[in-house]
Amino acid sequence: MPHDQHKLRYPFAMATQTHAKLPVLDFSIEELKPGSSSWLSARNEVCRVLEDYGYFVAELGNKVPLELHNTMFGGVRELFNFPTETKMKVTSDQIKPCHGYTPTAQYERMLIDNATSTEKIQKESANSYVRLIAELDQMVTRMIFENYGVEKYYGSHMEFATRSLVLLKYAEPQKSGTSKGVGIHTDKNFITILHQNHVKGLEIKTKDDDWIVFDPSPSSFIVLAGGALQVWSNDRIESCVHRVTLTESETRYSLGLFVFHDEILHVLEELVDEKYPLKYKPFNNFEFVKAQVQYGARGDLTVKAFCGV
Ligand SMILES: O=C(O)CCC(=O)C(=O)O
Ligand SMILES: [Fe+2]
Q1: What domains are there in the chain, each with its CATH number?
Q2: Are 110 and 90 contacting, i.e. CB atoms less than 8 angstroms apart?
Q3: What's a Gene Ontology MF term here (predicted)?
Q4: pLDDT above 70 coverage of the chain, percent
């Protein structure tokens, strides 16, 4: 790989008009190991873009073999082709609200605790796929902890990270009768990592109130900050506002990981100072999800409204 491709690309030089506005960080390099010089510059960049934008595109390059991408998206297509009664067997549990199969008029959604229960996706592919995204989550989270000088808490924090695989199918608007997919919201978890097929739809709200369309590619993942990360960082990083709008005449599939924090989060005293006085009471991630469900059609429940001091 030529040397210039080893650098973090920001903004992505080859990007299209819409994509040019999305910060793209290069996670494809093999030497991106804790302590290396590429790690240290990536670490700064990750936190800078998360603070400035609340999201970024992670380019994984050859770390996502096209075959793995195709197996996953092919498997997801087959999974959604099962009869509704079968899909309904993927159930939600009381502790982790919104998990299981939850179809709406606009889309079908499955949130699965354990990726191996997706019978139709080859088990091995699903495992290596989830491992790949989980590694990206670990890298990004470790970089965040190191950047704010609280790496001593990284290990114990990760013990309580729970990752759910999300699978989404949006029918083409001509069939469903609507171009509206998931409405405007922020994610309630710590970090979301999404990967999608070639059909556009994900729109990210910028701090200037513009909407940018994510232009997908098989090797690019989008990393979004959720409400739990906003609380953890005491507002240094704000959760990313996004929605899905369908404009293409094809079925859209989106996959990814929602990383939740399964323990009460307290803002670390190291992250409270004059510039960032304590902003949040202790936070329970799954209670926040439940509160959003109860809030329902009133819109997006913010962490400020849920547990702001
Ligand atoms: O379909 C997508 O890519 C995004 C879905 C989403 O934002 C969500 O499920 O929270
Ligand atoms: Fe979302």
Answers
A1: 24-307 (2.60.120.330)
A2: yes
A3: metal ion binding
A4: 89
